[in-house]
Amino acid sequence: MIIETRTESPDFVGFVSGVDLKKDLDNKIVKEIDNAINKLTILVFRNQNIDDYEQVKFTKYFGEIEASGNKSNITKAQDRRLSTDLADVSNLDKNNKPFTQDDPRRIFNLGNRLWHTDSSFKEIPAKYSLLSARNISKVGGNTEFADMRNAYDSLENKTKNKIDKMICEHSLIYSRQRLGFDMVKELSSDEIKNFTPVEQPLVRKNKVTNRKTIFLSSHIGKIKNWIRPDSMCFIDDLIEYSTQLKFKYIHEWSKNDLIIWDNRQTMHRARAYDDLKENRDMRRTTVLGEEKLI
Ligand code: OGA
Ligand code: MN
Description:
With 294 residues, this protein is of the alpha+beta class. A seven-stranded mixed sheet has the order 1-2-3-13-5-15-4, covered by helices on one side. It has helices at 27-40, 52-60, 104-109, 148-153, 157-163, 172-178, 183-186, 189-192, 228-242, and strands spanning 2-5, 13-17, 42-45, 87-88, 128-135, 143-147, 167-170, 198-201, 203-205, 212-214, 220-223, 248-251, 258-262, 266-270, 281-286. 24% of the residues lie in helices and 22% in strands. The longest helix has 15 residues, at 228-242. Manganese (II) ion binds at residues 112, 116, 118, 268.
């Protein structure tokens, strides 16, 4: 296995070759991959023509799978296209047809176009995400990643001190509200309980590298002990700052790419494509986080 980094900056992405994800992997390789994710944060594997079973098997080398269900999307169990081991990040319904424009599931999925980290709205937020490109759009549909360690390091000391002990409320309700999608109105009072905001620290530390990161996400709707409008202004400023080109990697997908990213140390977002016409079939498996942060 070879992991090559980019020659241009920023260099938080590794391109992995010489490993076949259809095959069983030995412990040494798994350790090497895991170490590389902690140090780099993003790994790209090209030409991995895997199926769901193989993706799940590969994911489980890194921990427990975070199930996709009614705490992370609004698709009813009987309407799912994929098993709950996978998050369906495509634009497709059960019959592999693109969602129509006003389908609430489509509008809900548009939330992926906002900068976020996966499952930051869960009490135990996600560790790694693995996204497999089974079918890609002809135009658009890139995924962008931002390195939240470099963003943290480059903050002025007074900002570091200000955010050091900050606690934020995260919920899918907040990120969807940014799109004008009011989940409180769209869902029943029972369903909405699945999306109750959770508190997370704004600064985290990676235990392997000891590097600090800004744990940002568009799921944040409030800073603890602040009012919401001030919270939104402050968080939006930080998101804008930490997603400057110098902290960013833009991935142009090829079919059968698989990317692993570390949600504890990066943010990401999907870019636009003609989702009413094209079939972009992306499937994500997620490694459960290991601890509650607060
Ligand atoms: C995800 C996600 C972005 C994309 O899978 O969690 O945000 O480009 N995907 O599909
Ligand atoms: Mn995501």
